[in-house]
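**Fold in tokens:**
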Amino acid sequence: MKSQIPVVLLACGSFNPITNMHLRLFEVARDHLHQTAVPELKLLCGADVLKTFQTPNLWKDAHIQEIVEKFGVVCVSRTGHNPKEYISGSPILHRYRHNIHLAREPVRNELSSTYIRRALSQGHSVKYLLPDAVISYIKDHNLYTRDSSWTDSSTQRNEGKTD
């Protein structure tokens, strides 16, 4: 590994609830940036978020351009997603592709917040999928259970999608 440099990563996504794989994004991105010696502020995202740049009316083109032109992106691979295709399919991403770093997660990542919410609502264990503090918070606040005020309408709308 090259000499370590200061790295600031800003992440977006639902993180609802945050999983160990969400936390892993930061580790993979940091390692990638340390190996490529790129010290800067970057947007950190999974490939699923990069794909949303193509969703009509979700992101403004001006915002996408500002992010990739001024700051850049570190995109961590995700099962079922092809970030190179998303970049080549977007004129803005393609123009600033030199500022998009693709970091490969060596551990297959099929975990999603949608899966976690569904498992919790069905009373299944999520031990080792979430940090213990997150599990405690969810239990203490009665989140994602059949009895909670939360309903899994997002899971039904987004069946099969990950976040």
Notes: The first helix runs from residue 20 to 36. The two ends are 31 Å apart (CA to CA).
